[in-house]
Specification:
This protein has one domain: Peptide Deformylase. Helices cover 20% and strands 29% of the residues. It has three helices and eight strands; from the N terminus they run αβββββββααβ. The strands form two sheets. The chain has a five-stranded antiparallel beta sheet, with helices on both faces. A three-stranded antiparallel beta sheet has the order 4-5-8. A hairpin with a 6-residue loop joins strand 4 and strand 5. The chain is globular and about 45 Å long. The structure holds zinc ion. Zinc ion (ZN) binds next to helix 2.
């Protein structure tokens, strides 16, 4: 079912619209545990979405506690954005685009509604890095990647590491 391999662009799983979760069962809990484990293995990982491991379901994890004090893990099942406010230009990276980072314009604050592991509906408001991360992960569930939102690929996308020029 699941694999621990992170899907990297241009893997087709990253471009699919994910289907909603209907049964809140053991399989869902297993998927969430698995996502958590993979995110924790990534140094400074703050979010992951199910399609990044090839599971096309509306499940994402956000946990900015490595950078924001008192932040808690959010397990987002079937999440939707209810409102957005303000603007925030942020420098983003993605496990599925390991070679690049980019500047992305997003809302500074968001209100979302999602379901928890038991299927209960939860309303939540976020700001700052957590709001940005939520928007990034919800994009994944719609088959969108952060570079779809940069203003120009030429000026807003940057290689993560400068590769040494090799002589031929
Ligand atoms: Zn991502």
């Amino acid at each position: 079912m699941t694999t621990s391999r992170i899907r990297v662009f241009p893997d087709s799983c990253l471009r699919k619209i994910c289907t909603p979760v209907r049964s809140f069962d053991g399989e869902l809990k297993e998927l969430v545990m698995h996502l958590r484990q993979i995110m924790q293995n990534q140094k400074m990982g703050i979010g992951i979405a199910a399609p990044q491991i090839g599971v096309l379901r509306q499940v994402a994890l956000v946990n900015v506690s490595v950078r924001v004090e008192k932040a808690q893990e959010l397990v987002l099942i079937n999440p939707v954005i209810r409102w957005m406010a303000g603007e925030n230009l942020s420098h983003e990276g993605c496990m599925s685009l390991p070679e690049y980072t980019g500047y992305v314009q997003r809302a500074a604050r968001v209100g979302i509604r999602y379901q928890d592991l038991s299927g209960n509906s939860v309303d939540y408001e976020a700001e700052g890095l957590e709001a940005v991360c939520i928007q990034h992960e919800l994009d994944h569930l719609q088959g969108k990647l952060f570079f779809d939102r940069v203003v120009t690929l030429k000026t807003d996308m940057h290689p993560r590491h400068w590769k040494k020029k090799t002589r031929r």
